Amino acid sequence: MKNNNKSFSLDGLFRQNIVLVSGLVTAPIIIACTTLMHALVLSIGFFMISYLSILICRFIPSKIAYTFRIMLYALVAAALYIPTILFLNNIYPEAANQVMLYIELMAVNSLLFAKTESRFYLIPFGKMMIDVFVYIAGFAVVAFVVGFVRELLANGTLFGTEVCPAIMPAASSPFFGFILVGLLAALCRAVSERRKERKDG
Amino acid sequence: MAEVFARMISLAMIAIFSQNAVFDRAFGVDVAIYASRKNHHIIGFTVATTVMTTLASAAAYPFDIMLLPTKYGYLFMPLIYVAIVSILYLIGLFVLWRAFPKVFYRVKQYAHLAVFNLAVFGALFLNYNFGKGFAGYVGYGFGTGIGFFLACFLLNIVHERFNSEKIPRMLRGYPITLIFIGIISLALNVLVGYMTEF
User: Fold this and answer.
1) Class of residue A134 by CB neighbours under 10 A (exposed 0-12, middle 13-18, buried 19+)
2) Which of A126, A131, B123, B125 is most buried as measured by Cβ atoms within 10 A of its Cβ?
3) How much is the pLDDT for B40?
């Protein structure tokens, strides 16, 4: 029972990662996550908008038709964008400005529409808080891995500090983002299946 | 008049090919992959997305002109765009329910996915940079929808093969589809010869 609870709450980190497995929130990672600083800003933005929206929207009565609930979710997330971007502009003005489009678009991210009704709102509030946090942590982990690889290859830096010569400037382009996330998704699946086989056999 | 029409067409072309919502900016990749699984989904999804990007772009124009040049106007744009899309979504559902009830019951389960997706909202956020004028907004919005259709169509062609036994298990489905989108994106980048500034 204890093990079941543990694997349930860690689903979002790996087995049901929203970028690598279900592909719900890919655009910010593929296009905007080109450096570790962008990864940090996107992760904070995603956390502030999605986590708080999901918690607040939990209080929207389920009697309201699904059509209207979806609109309310998006409106709450769009309202939360205001403090989020003000905060990010205050602490990381340059990076926040560079990825602003993808932070604006987090108001309509698929985690909010797809996972709330099918998962988060079906479990008790306390457990949901942890579950949502783990899902968002799953996003952040992928963001940092992608940001690390792309910054190192494209600029030869890590958090802006030079560590080696830039060997692949095209690593910051959208096509490399697609290919890298595709390869990470394949790796994630291979590791998941290996773990499952070990567990079964 | 001819100049306005030419502007609309040229911005639509830009949105379809050089700044394709899916291949160039990854807007609505998840929805495009979902829609491309079934032939009949593609038509429903892309018609809804195209109508919404076009109408919402037209509706957003006065708000962009009023608010975006101001210092803090950008803060309220997500709220305004969500409100515009929500109102159009309700009107669309109502019209379908009254005029085509059979279609309404068929599409109502996934209509929100076609409307509340990044392709629609991405077009609205980018309009101010590329649209320039009402005709430009409408052209860019329409082109984004058609570009989304193009992406769904290409993904639909390869869907069966990418989910077949011929593809190694670890790459099958979602991972190989992303790599495929990456290769198309590379081809479009080379064709246009520029880098996206997000």
Assistant:
1) middle
2) B123
3) 79
Which of residues B131 and A143 earns the better pLDDT score?
A: A143
Q: Is residue B173 part of a domain?
A: yes
Nearest by CB to residue B82, choosing from A100, A107, A183, is A107
Amino acid at B193: G
**What residue segments make up the domains of chain A, in order of their start?**
12-200
Interfacial A residues in 116-135 facing B (CB < 8 Å): none
Residue pair A150/A34 in contact by the 8 Å Cβ criterion: yes
The residue range of the domain holding B91 is 2-192
Please indicate, yes or no, if residue B166 is contained in any of the structural domains. Answer: yes
**Region B174-196: what's the mean pLDDT?**
86
Cβ A108–B125 below 8 Å, yes or no?
Answer: no
Which residues in B lie closer than 8 A to residue A18 (C-beta atoms)?
none
User: Is residue A162 classed as helix, strand or coil in its secondary structure?
Assistant: strand
Q: What is d(CA B125, CA A103) in angstroms, rounded to the nearest whole number?
A: 11
Instruction: Specify the pTM.
Output: 0.92
* Contact of B96 with B103, CB cutoff 8 Å: yes
Reported as a pLDDT band with limits 50, 70 and 90, residue A77 is: very high
ipTM of this predicted complex? 0.91
pLDDT tens, B44-58? 889 999 999 999 999
